[in-house]
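Chapter summary example.
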Amino acid sequence: MKYNHTSYGFLVDDISKAVNFYRDTMGFRVVRQSDTFAQMNSGAGVAFFFWKWGHLCEHLGEQAMSRVKHRVQSAIRFDRPEDVDAAYEELKAEGVEFVAAPGDWEWNAHAAYFVDGDGYMWELYCWLQ
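The structure predicted for these 129 residues follows.
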């Protein structure tokens, strides 16, 4: 399977603070924003986001998040839930240890999460209709 790095972001404590800096100082445009997530248009063709650290801890669990050494997350977007599931199975067969198996999450995504050997968090996802 081919994996395309489509998104990167920072895992932050304060979404508004991050948005204010990158919007007002860096000139990025806000695409969407909530209390727990924001997506910016950086003009680079790759989605740039902020996700609230505490929100991930709440949903993925403190134990899973304790494996994350860097508050940076990368993501690979797929078109369909079946593609996410197939990527999960393929990577799992290669020895990748996931902190969350594929599932439908309240943020309107079907996604799975893993932390690589250096402590970087990755998401395999597709948006749900």
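To summarize the output: Residues 81-93 form the longest helix (13 residues).
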